[in-house]
Amino acid sequence: MRRTVVAVAVVVTMVVGACTTDTGVDRAATGGSGSSSGPEVTVTSSTSTEASTTLPPTTVTTTTAPITTLPPTTVPPTTTTLPPQSITEPPGPLQGGSVGVRTMALQTALAEQFYDPGEADGRFGVKTTMSVWAFQALFGMPRDGIVTPELEQLILARPAQAMLRPELGPTHVEIDLTRQVMLVWRDGNLKLVTHVSSGSEVPYCERTREGRRCGSAVTPLGVYQFGRRVSGWRDAPLGRLYNPVYFNGGIAVHGAGSVPNRPASHGCVRIPMHVADYFPALVETGDLVEVFRS
User: DSSP secondary structure string, 34-67?
Assistant: First the structure.
């Protein structure tokens, strides 16, 4: 009977020891006084050591992302384009490529005299150059497109332009082959002055859709009347014509991409494309046109 009690005490003591410290075991057995009223029981626990598991040190692997060095930010230089009206050209001639208030004033003056230098934008381009050619021709100057200070003052003075062929009446068109200019008059009022390029007067032979065609690139002299017209492009045997208005058989006033400062056509009268846009509206069927040399 005594053996059974001791065994039970040992089991209880072992269970309690698994949940507390060694000091706790002593107090439970003595009721907190530190002395034992029963036989001394010594508990040797081999599981305590086994239960104390020492974990290996945790190895923390830190992955460092590669540092990307960004190239320095390059700010493109700021290009400031000044408007022409804020630029005053240096003293001296004006010509193709000039930009500024003097060019703008020149364009305005030419337009008020019924030349067509294009928009008065202060930029001396091809349209302005061709208008200067026509002005120089009418005033007996070389057609070089360079506006000297003297010519600039003359253009700005807006001199009156007289009819070259007043005998044709108040409504007519004048084409001067010598000066390569055309003037349009309606009811006695000037409506247009433009540079032209007429027949080169050089014999030619060219292949066409109809076969080989030869002729002399001459714009015939005389007084004619405007007749048929074509709106837009016409593919003629010797090339393309824009808004042609015919006055002598196959000879017409028409727009062309090339209107050089010399006679260069097969016989027609070439005018700048921007002028050809509205030229047909300035003339009516039956209006007189004279082609002459001055």
Answer: S--SS-------SHHHHH---PPPPPPPPPPPPP
